[in-house]
Amino acid sequence: MAKFELKLPKMGESVAEATVTNWLKQVGDKIEMDEAVLEIATDKVDSEVPSEVAGTLVEILFNVDDVVQVGQTIAIIETEGGAIDTPQKNVAATAVEETAAAEITKSIDTAKESITTIDFSDSAKFYSPLVRNIAKEEGVSLEELEVLEGSGKDGRINKEDILNYIKERKAKFTVPQKETKTEEVVSQPKASASENQMVATVAPVSVNGADEIVEMDRMRKLISKYMVESVQTSAHVQSFIEVDVTNIVKWRDKVKGAFEKREGEKLTFTPIFMEVVAKALKDFPGMNISVDGDYIIKKKNINLGMAAALPNGNLIVPVIKNADQLNLVGMAKTVNDLANRARIGKLKPDDTQGGTYTVTNVGTFGSVFGTPIINQPQVGILALGAIRKVPAVIETPEGDFIGIRQKMFLSHSYDHRVVDGALGGSFVKRVAEYLEAWDINRDI
C-alpha cells in the first residue's frame, strides 16, 4: 500500500489560503479518482477539492473551520501499490526541531506585538497600506521588509511578494507531524486579525424570548466586512441618468427566438448592457482604475464584475475577463455561464478575481434605481434600474407629442477621491448615449 498526500491546490491568482467548511468523506471511506473529498471556502467562493487518486481516506489533518494554506497537506489517502519510504527522525532530533519551532513561534508572536508600533517613515522605501497591514498581522518586521526584494516598479514590494515570503517562512519552520501519536493536535495557521474581527464573542439575547437569533453565515460576514470597509475607504458620490431603451427592447424581442435557436443560449438584457459598459470604459479609461494608497493603478484589461444574487440570499461578483474583446454572442455565453455556475455554487476562485469595474442589476427585483457600494479596490459601480413603460415627450420634426416609451435609470456610484463629477457624470452619460443609439436593425 502507498500513501498519497492530498494537498490544497492553487485556486487562482492572489488566493493564498482557504477555510475547510465540510468533509464529504470520513476516515475509512473509499474514494474514487476525481471524487470530491471536502468543501472549502475562500474569501470569494465555495468549492470542492477532488482526489487525484483512488484509494481509502486514512487520515484527516484539518478540522472544519480550520484555515489551510495553498500547498499544505490536508489529508492522507492510502492507495494500491508499493509503500512510500518516509525517512524516520530520531526522538532527539524531533525534540530539537520542536523546541526550535516553538522559539521561532514565540519570536514571531513577540514581533507581532512590537511591529504594531513601528514607524514605517523610518524607512526610505515606500510600503503600501496593504503591505503594511499584512506585515503587522503576520509579524514581519521592518528589518525583514528592508532586505526583501520586490517585483514591483523600482523594486517595490507588492502583495504577492510579501505573501510569498510569509508562505516560505511558515513552510521553513513547520514542525513535522508524528504518525505514531493519533491523539496529537495538528497546529494550524492562526486566523488573521480581519478574520478574528468577524467572530462574534457574545451572542445577543432575545429580550422578549420570542425573537429568533441567527448567526450570519460565513459569506454574509465577509460581505458585511467588505461593504463597511468600502464605505470607510471611498468617498462615495452618485450620478443618475434616465435612458430610453425602447429600441433595445424592440430589438431583443425581435431576435431572441432566433438567437436561442442558433446559439443554444437565452439572450437577456445583461450582455447588451455589459457590451455597452465595456465600450464606454474604453472611451473613459479613467474609470477603469484602482487605488493603492496614494497611487492610482491604470488597468490594461477591462474585466467587468457582474453582481449576482445567490439562492441563499447572498451576493457574489463573477468577472467577465477582457469584456471589451467579446462580441454580443461571446458576451451572452459568458454571462449565462457565470450566472448558472454562481447559482449552483460551481464558480472557481479565478472566476471572481481581477475585476476592474462592476455592474449590478437592481432592476431584477423591481427597484427603479439604487446607490450601490463600490467593490474595492475599484472606483466605480453601475446599477441598472428596472425597465418600465412610461409616458414621455417625443421630439419629431413635426413637433413634440406624448408617447409610451421603455425607460430605465442608471445609477453610477464612484470614488470621489480619484473620480470627480465631470468624469463620473460623463461616463454614465456615454453609457446612456450608446444604449439610446442602439440599431434596431442590427444583426445578431
Walk me through what this model shows.
It is a single chain. The radius of gyration is 26 Å and the shape is globular. Strands 9, 12, 15, 16, 17, 18 and 19 form a 7-stranded mixed β-sheet that branches. The protein has helices spanning 91-115, 129-138, 142-147, 159-172, 193-197, 218-233, 246-263, 269-283, 328-343, 421-436; strands at residues 2-7, 17-23, 30-31, 36-41, 46-50, 55-60, 67-69, 73-79, 236-244, 289-292, 295-298, 304-306, 308-309, 315-316, 319-320, 357-360, 380-384, 388-396, 399-415. Helix content is 32%, strand content 23%. β4 (36-41) and β5 form a beta hairpin. By secondary structure, it is α+β, with helices and mostly antiparallel strands. α8 packs across α9 (328-343) and α8 packs across α10. It contains 10 helices and 19 strands.
Helical segment count: 10
- Main β-sheet, in a few words? 7 strands, mixed
Provide the structure class: alpha+beta
Q: Could you give the distance between the termini?
A: 59 Å
**How much helicity do the residues have?**
25-40%
Shape: globular
Uncertain segments: 83-94, 178-200
Note the beta-strand portion.
Answer: 15-25%
Secondary-structure element string: EEEEEEEEHHHHHHEHHEEEEEEHEEEEH
Mean of residue pLDDT values: 83
Topology summary:
Elements: E1 2-7, E2 17-23, E3 30-31, E4 36-41, E5 46-50, E6 55-60, E7 67-69, E8 73-79, H1 91-115, H2 129-138, H3 142-147, H4 159-172, H5 193-197, H6 218-233, E9 236-244, H7 246-263, H8 269-283, E10 289-292, E11 295-298, E12 304-306, E13 308-309, E14 315-316, E15 319-320, H9 328-343, E16 357-360, E17 380-384, E18 388-396, E19 399-415, H10 421-436
Parallel strand pairs: 12-16, 16-17
Antiparallel strand pairs: 1-8, 2-4, 2-7, 3-6, 4-5, 6-8, 9-19, 10-11, 12-15, 13-14, 17-19, 18-19
Helix pairs in contact: 1-2, 2-4, 8-9, 8-10
